[in-house]
Write a structure and sequence with these properties.
With 278 residues, the protein is α/β, with parallel strands linked by helices. It has ten helices and eight strands. Helix 2 crosses helix 3. It starts with 11 loop residues before the first strand and ends in a 15-residue tail after the last helix.
Length: 278
Amino acid sequence: MQPRENRDDSMKLIADNLRITRPEISRALQQFDPEPVQALVKACEDRGAWAIDVNTGPLGKLAEPGMRFFIDAVQAVTDLPLLIDTANPDAMTAGVKAAKNRIIINGFSLEPRKLEKILPLAREYEADIVGFLLYPDSGVPKDAAQRFEVALDLMAAAESAAVAKEQVIIDPVIPPLAWTDGIVQARHVLEVIRTLPDLLGFPVRTIGGISNLGTSAPDKARRLSVEQSYVAMLASAGLNFALLDILNPDLINAARVSGILVKEDIFSWGMVPHSGTV
């Protein structure tokens, strides 16, 4: 079984910067040029990322060679854990097989294809796996109660697949504030994070994608403002893993200071990073 992190209570910061939607990363794949990928990964590691989310998208006809290219490029320059982030089962399988670093499979839901093709990889490779609180049609539950129902179904599916409950990391699905009920759902996500351990009867870990919150924001300044505030609320709720832009020093400062205020028993000003630094 792959080693898991020491189960401390600190919120770990995962870089979500490596995305196929970035033009330089898309070009790197087309040319099978590892340098742009590796430069970005090294910058994320320098900024203190706990892990790298390798978000390749579905990859289409390049599912297997494309995923191997990304995994090989990334692990050539870092020993950090890797989240293999794709909905394509063939790409996911190729990534898991190619990985030498510790991995987290990102992820599965109640969607039948993911239960059949992706969830069993967690059992076969004894890897942690992210479980999204989504309905089988990929619909997002509207409130905390519905998310709790999906969480119970998700854990039952993991048990049926012989995946240990401790391997599952729950993603309650942070909504864009631009949704009609986005701000209400964002508060329900906090309730889910606080309550899930009691509901499930063990210290389940949780993960959240901060970047989802500001989708369609009118400008970067207002997007940053809501992300800084919400990441503090997530830390207070007990989130274990935050997926975010690790290259944004203001957002990372907010996340780290929030972790200090929430978890530390003894405070000193030396713990607090200067504004605009990491």
